[in-house]
Amino acid sequence: MAQNKKTEFPENIQRIASFTKLLSHPARLAILEVLANRQTCVCGEIVEILPLAQSTVSQHLKELKEGGLVKGEVEGTSSCYCIHWDNFSKAYNEFAKHIEFIQKFKNNKTENCCE
Q1: Closest by alpha carbon to 17, among 1, 5, 27?
Q2: How many CA atoms within 13 Å lie on the side-chain side of 114?
Q3: Among 44, 46, 91, 108, who pairs with 19 as Cys (CB 3.0-4.6 Å)?
Q4: How far is CA 68 from the centre of its chain?
Q5: So what's the pLDDT on residue 113?
Q6: Which keywords does UniProt give here (predicted)?
Q7: Distance CA 61, CA 83 (A)
Q8: Which one has a higher pLDDT value, 115 or 75?
Q9: What pLDDT is recorded for position 25?
Q10: How much is the average pLDDT of 45-68?
């Protein structure tokens, strides 16, 4: 049986991977754009804007909420969601710093590497 080796990596890399995984689906990126534009949004409005079924939108919202990028409440038959800006900003900044760290090494590239 294969073992999950994610825990063998540093915590910051695990957090960055989780953040980028949340952003890896076009529907979740589109949902974040809608929420950012409207500040708050009822799930039904997202369904009207995006070419997705209600159940699909709900599943993606659930993943974004579990990942901490979105917060929301269920009030009767409607749900209200918004971006959790503190969490989003922290995750984005950690990701950006890590990309900058990786890019520092591009000047060390060997001329004939993979060419």
Answers
A1: 5
A2: 1
A3: 91
A4: 9
A5: 66
A6: DNA-binding, Transcription, Transcription regulation
A7: 10
A8: 75
A9: 97
A10: 92
Nearest-10 crossing angle of helices 11-22, 85-103 = 110
Q: Which amino acid appears at position 16 of this protein?
A: I
Domain boundaries, the chain: 24-94
d(CA 101, CA 85): 24
The pTM for the full model equals 0.83
Given a contact cutoff of 8 angstroms between Cβ atoms, the answer to whether 78 and 44 are in contact is yes
Give the domain 24-94 fold: Arc Repressor Mutant, subunit A (1.10.10)
Q: ∠ CA 70-74-80 to the nearest 5 degrees?
A: 50
CA 24: distance to chain centroid?
Answer: 7
Tell me the H-state helices in 1-115. Answer: 11-22, 26-38, 43-49, 54-66, 85-103
